[in-house]
Amino acid sequence: MRLSIRELQTLLFFYIVFVVLVVVLVALAIRALVSYLSTPTKGQAVSQTPSKTLAQALKDHRIRCNLTQSAVAQALGVSPQLVNQWETGEADPAMANLNALAQVYGVTLAQLLQGVR
Predict the structure, then answer these.
(1) Which H, E and C letters describe 73-117, residue by residue?
(2) Comparing 30-34, 38-42, 44-48, which segment has the lowest mean pLDDT?
(3) 101: closest CA among 91, 74, 81?
């Protein structure tokens, strides 16, 4: 039995559609499984530490220390606009600046980043 070009194209189309559907279904199944496994059950403890962004953590520490963005910027040798970008999430500080921020706020780097998601 010999198939025409048109019939081969149709078979190829349905094969591709079938493969795409299988891939989508597998991806959905994996996503559902991951979601199910990461959801705590009744007996499991839920984390009591609220998650916050790095920007919010930096702002909270600055406010706790009663410092202005200008004062923090001056202590680090950067512009107040950059400190503002860190606290609004527009930019992330470099590791050296995170270490310096921890020193300015009188905490360790681990304490500075505690609860940050």
Answers:
(1) HHHHCCCHHHHHHHHHCCCCCCHHHHHHHHHHHCCCHHHHHCCEC
(2) 44-48
(3) 74
Torsion sign, CA atoms 56, 58, 61, 63: negative
Mean pLDDT of the residues in the chain: 89
Supply 66's token pair.
């009663």
Is the CB of residue 83 less than 8 Å from the CB of residue 73? yes
Kindly list the distances between the CA atom of residue 17 and the CA atoms of 8, 14, 25, 27, 29, in Å, as whole numbers in the listed order.
14, 5, 12, 15, 18
Give me 113's structure tokens. Answer: 């980043």
Query: Is residue 69 within 8 Å of residue 76, measured between CB atoms?
Result: no
Which region, left, alpha or beta, applies to residue 92 given φ > 0 means left and ψ of -120 to 50 means alpha? beta
Cβ atoms of residues 88 and 99 within 8 Å: no
- The reply to whether the predicted model has a pTM over 0.70 is no
